[in-house]
Write a structure and sequence with these properties.
The structure is a single chain. 29% of the residues lie in helices and 11% in strands. By secondary structure, the chain is an alpha+beta fold. The protein starts with 24 loop residues before the first helix and ends with a helix. About 9% of the residues have low confidence.
Length: 79
Amino acid sequence: MCDRGTTNADTSDKTYIFDPDALTTAQLMGDACAICHVRWPRPRCPLGELPDGSGVYGCDECAGIAVAHATRARAFAMH
């Protein structure tokens, strides 16, 4: 369900930086979830940023998955 092209370039500052070439126009404009492409309801949860600082948004479900992943990654890094 998740697009493999939605990878982060840098997580050192805990902000995911999305590659704009891996996103559709709707995703870049905030009209579709950056992960699953859903358009309705319009994505409102911030998932990260583009290199130019623009926000990248996701649906509630994908935002929950992203938070859970980040939490596990931080816990793993602390070991």
